[in-house]
Amino acid sequence: MPPHQYFFEKPNMSLKKLPPWLLLILPAIIILAAVILIPLLFSLYSSFTSYRLTRPDTLFNWIGTFNYEKAVKSSVFWAAFGRTILFLTLALNLEMFLGLGLALLVSRVTRGQRVLRTVMMFPYDVFTCSCRISIQIHI
Q: Which of 60, 27, 57 shows the shortest CA–CA distance to 42?
């Protein structure tokens, strides 16, 4: 085939050639990408502008890194950042050690272990069921 025909030929790519598992996952990937990427990109863009929700016309007022410089120089920002790191450190370590300890205790129980595991799943189940019922009521 001459080189000039190669560039003008339609690509031989179709959805039929994709593996079935990818075809099944593709809608979820597209929706998740749209739901996550669009707000993320908008937030990134608007952080470089003087955008205010009450004044939509400020979306195109480009100020560069001024918002970041202002945050880094602010003592309130650093105090909040420190509290966040402290909270994350304490909460994550506490949750991990309590969860591990509870798992070790449950694994040692021989009598009634199934009942205990079922009872431990109640909060998760109640939350899931209440969300489902709430969605059905409001739709």
A: 60
Residue 7: pLDDT band (50, 70, 90) is low
Sole residue written with tokens 């952080």: 47
Q: Distance between CA 114 and CA 135 in Å, rounded? A: 31
Q: How would residue 110 be classed by pLDDT, with cut points 50, 70 and 90? A: confident
- CA pair distance 134, 115, nearest whole angstrom: 28
CB crowding 41-55: b at 16 or more within 10 Å, else e:
eeeeeeeebebeeee
Query: Are 119 and 109 within 8 A, CB to CB?
Result: no
Q: pTM score, two decimals? A: 0.56
Contact status, residue 51 vs residue 58, Cβ threshold 8 Å: yes
Over the stretch 55-65, which tens digit does the pLDDT of each residue have?
888 888 999 99
